[in-house]
Amino acid sequence: QLPCPRQQWWVYMFGTWLGVRPDHSSKGLAMTLGFLEPCGMNTPHTHPRATEMLYLVNGTITTGMIAENGARFVFNTLDAGSAQVFLQGSIHYQQNELCDPVMFVGASYP
């Protein structure tokens, strides 16, 4: 049973690519503004060619990451104003386990 009244998993993201070409093959920076609704989850995913830094604007989220080489699982709780780095090729996720929406900024550098 989830602690929130809404039992759906929602994430909204808006992104842009700040570089020479938008195909991620040139040097540049990808920026994303994300919103996690109550009990929302950014499902496990990977960025094979980029390291990601996530900055939490408000609220509290939990994050998890396992590196590409199979190193130990890293689990963190982030509060507003905190950041986390997700290594290139790692499988990672973010989850809002509380009942207030949260906003984060993600930056990836290939």
| β-strand amount | over 45%
Strand order of the largest sheet: 1-2-9-4-7
Order of helices and strands: EEEEEEEEE
Biggest sheet overview = 5 strands, antiparallel
Separation, N- and C-terminal Cα atoms? 39 Å
Supply Rg: 14 Å
Helix/sheet category: mainly beta
Helical fraction: under 10%
Uncertain regions: pLDDT < 50 for 5+ in a row?
Answer: 5-10, 17-24
Total number of beta strands: 9
What does the overall shape look like?
globular
Please work out how many helical segments DSSP would assign.
0
Global mean pLDDT? 81
Please tell me about this protein's structure:
The termini are far apart. β1 (11-19) and β2 (28-36) form a beta hairpin. The protein has 110 residues and is an all-beta fold. It has strands spanning 11-19, 28-36, 41-45, 51-56, 60-66, 74-79, 83-86, 91-95, 102-109. The chain has a five-stranded antiparallel beta sheet, with no helix packed on it. It has a four-stranded antiparallel beta sheet with strand order 3-8-5-6, with no helix packed on it. It is built from no helices and nine strands. Helices cover 0% and strands 54% of the residues.
